[in-house]
Amino acid sequence: MSNNKNFVSEPRVILIGAGIMSATLGVMMKELVPDLTIEIFERLDRAAAESSDAWNNAGTGHSAFCELNYTPELPDGTIEISKAVKIAEAFEISKQFWAYLINNNKLSLPDAFIRSVPHMSFVKGEKDVHFLRKRYDALTRCHLFNGMQYSEDPVMLAKWVPLIMEGRSNAEPVAATCMELGTDVNFGALTRCMFDYLIKAGGVNVHFGQEVRRLDQESDGRWRVRLKDMETGERREVKSNFVFIGAGGGALGLLKKSGIPEGKGFGGFPVSGQWLVCNNPEIIERHHAKVYGKASVGAPPMSVPHLDTRIINNQKALLFGPYAGFSTKFLKQGSYFDLPKSIHLSNLKPMLYAGARNLELTKYLIDQVRQSPEDRLEALQEYYPNAHLEDWDLEIAGQRVQIIKKDVALGGILEFGTEVVSAADGTIAALLGASPGASTAVSIMITLLSRCFPDRFHSEATQTRIRQMIPSYGRSLAENEQLLEEIRTFTSSVLGLQSVESKL
């Protein structure tokens, strides 16, 4: 994908950041308004180079099948599944949109970015086994989780995940759930496929090495975006009716530069990560699943440990982690001044209050930063008892920025998730936060479109067009089992995934 130097000085839409969010919004808008002109600006030299990159992103098609942090245990002992249901349904919506694009020859072959990989949860110890059993019972009451299997039998678990069971003592109780309908998604490949389509569709230009320096709203409501060429230092301006800030960890700083009142009070807490990546082909071939466990006390959701089968550039890989860390950067290729520069009078109080209530998280991150190779190996051996250090290499993962926002009762709270922040007039919007963002990108962008373009979005023509792209749109997959079966059969066929009827 080459850098287009031909700027449209007054496009109808500007997208800042060339990641999965901008790609998804750009494709949806282009499908709804084919003659739309869009300019896309990215500070790096290629698309999907930050959080959307395969090595920076967790890569799980987040469906809440295996992520235990999406199903917390309440004080009364019950399992809360509402977030899991919402995420599972959102991922089904994303798959429908991707299937539509493939069916209409707008994307390359599906195996370039999505494959079937079972999703599993694994726990040990009486307390966690009891939790997982209750979680299984709660989730399987909802048909979104039909097909989930549960076992406490070491023989069965050894068939599902031999690496995890070999060398493990039989004295300690273990349990696992397995969903064969899980997926592995290369969001970097998907993002680049989407940008290729946008360029071919016409009226869309992608510019790399362009840093947004200022955002100012004019009296007529349009936005003036001031840019700097990272290579030549050249500066120029572009005006637009609508701006979307999809710059990952960089979105918070740009939102502040916009000056919209809706952006006041937001802060960010950066969390970095590292992976242990297996370098032994024999070990890689013996594991085929995404196996999630329980997070340590105080750990952020992105640090939930997992032994993770990945397919990157058509090569099978095996990762363990991520090990959390702390950096004041908001982007992997950002500045160490990102965090201090993000602190203003409007968000100082929320950040101080949130920090005071998350001391366990601070201690956890400090402990993670201080880990030795032997410490990391010990954490891996909790999941793979026979692991040896020479079979694993340490790699740097992506950077995440968790949301800190005002709270009337608490002063400020740290949130783990994503949030759309938009101006009252709908002319600018930003996406803040992290996981499970990429997997739920389509649902997020539907929300954004409805909020920023309410009249056009709710027109009969637009609603009809959205239903063509997302057949279940306007109907609840969580409440309609037959519809879910029909949708899953369709998307599995088009995307080349494990069929609904398949069994382990």
Automatic annotation (TrEMBL):
Keyword annotations: FAD, Flavoprotein, Oxidoreductase, Tricarboxylic acid cycle
Cofactor needs: FAD
GO MF annotation terms: L-malate dehydrogenase (quinone) activity
Source superkingdom: Bacteria
Signal listed as a keyword: no
Pathway named in the protein's UniProt entry: Carbohydrate metabolism; tricarboxylic acid cycle; oxaloacetate from (S)-malate (quinone route): step 1/1
Recorded coiled-coil stretches: none
InterPro entries in the record: FAD/NAD-bd_sf, MQO
EC number from the UniProt entry: 1.1.5.4
Catalysed reactions, as listed in the record: (S)-malate + a quinone = a quinol + oxaloacetate
Pfam families in the cross-refs: Mqo
Name of the top EC class for this enzyme: oxidoreductase
PANTHER family: L-2-HYDROXYGLUTARATE DEHYDROGENASE, MITOCHONDRIAL (PTHR43104:SF2)
Family: Belongs to the MQO family.
Protein name listed in UniProt: Probable malate:quinone oxidoreductase
Natural source organism: Adhaeribacter terrigena
